Amino acid sequence: MRIAIDAMGGDAAPDMNIQGALEAAREWPDVEIILVGDEAKLKPLMTEIPSNLRVQHASEVVLPDDEPVKAVRRKKDASMVVAGRLVKEGQADAMISAGNTGALMATGLLVVGRMPGIERPALAPMIPTVDGKGVLALDLGANMDATPEHLLQYAIMGSVYRNKVHGLTKPRIGLLNVGTEEMKGNELTKGAFPLLKEAPIHFVGNVESRDVLQGNCDVLVCDGFVGNILLKTLEGTAGTIFSVLKQEFTSSLLSKLAAAVLKPGLSRFKKKLDYKEHGGAPLLGLNGLVLKSHGSSDARAIKNAVRQAREALKNDLVGSISAEISGKGAVQ
């Protein structure tokens, strides 16, 4: 299997992307890593080039403040666009980028292409939960507006993903709402509820945002506007909690001693909430596997994104979703 990495995308590019790619190449010799970017900048940073890693030259870069669609259309030789083209042309089986999220979505739609039967692809990151299993949430930002039928497709794609990539035989699907009662919510959730209830998935009903981190469902379905607000709120809350704890535990000698005692437990707690452990968020509904890594991804996050892509390819994620959407399969 061949996995293309946008070497120039992300806050720490290209250094961390190269390091993560090298670690992944050493860890999984059955994967061919294709580093896409400016050869003149990449090769001097590589002390070694494993036999299963190669560089694909790309002379341009999609910048963080570029207008997504214009950048994809005008910068034909940008590392992100070239990686997408490798997937489109069958020269790579998957691509990973920590670059401009909007541009990656545009690359997915305009370069890789949408899967037949899918109206709107969905961005589906894993949200950490207290039980350590996480919840796959979609859509968390690919589309600001959605219809009940879109949410149904999100639910089916999410169910297939958790089954194929994480091995869950009967993923629990929840609909993000303001209450657990069936008739709660706005027109979108009221319209989606009966569709999810009749779909060949394990639908557990409405889920309130306060319960998401408790792990009461395996797949959380929502529109991109609400989902992105949920994600940013959780990220901001987690960051604030750790910032306040750090201030409190360094405020006096006694608190520093207490911090020393609690440090192992706090480290485990922080690891549970660390996005780097999950690697990346798949953009589900495309005609190829596309993963979005966090903008501040380090080498560990890039390596974990490769692991994630490898598992998805081994289990034919894209083919399985296509079969479910076309009615040829049965969702667990």
Automatic annotation (TrEMBL):
Pathways involved: Lipid metabolism; phospholipid metabolism
Cross-referenced Gene3D superfamilies: Isopropylmalate Dehydrogenase (3.40.718.10)
Entry-linked SUPFAM superfamilies: Isocitrate/Isopropylmalate dehydrogenase-like
Residues passing through the membrane, by range: none
Location(s) in or outside the cell: Cytoplasm
KW Ligase (keyword) present: no
Gene Ontology BP terms: fatty acid biosynthetic process; phospholipid biosynthetic process
InterPro entries: FA_synthesis, Phospholipid_synth_PlsX-like
UniProt keywords, alphabetically: Acyltransferase, Cytoplasm, Lipid biosynthesis, Lipid metabolism, Phospholipid biosynthesis, Phospholipid metabolism, Transferase
GO MF annotations, alphabetized: phosphate:acyl-[acyl carrier protein] acyltransferase activity
Catalytic activity, as annotated: a fatty acyl-[ACP] + phosphate = an acyl phosphate + holo-[ACP]
GO cellular component: cytoplasm
E.C. number: 2.3.1.274
Keyword Transit peptide (UniProt): no
First-level EC class: transferase
Major place of residence: cytoplasm
Family: Belongs to the PlsX family.
Assembly information from the UniProt record: Homodimer. Probably interacts with PlsY.
Function: Catalyzes the reversible formation of acyl-phosphate (acyl-PO(4)) from acyl-[acyl-carrier-protein] (acyl-ACP). This enzyme utilizes acyl-ACP as fatty acyl donor, but not acyl-CoA.
Protein name, UniProt field: Phosphate acyltransferase
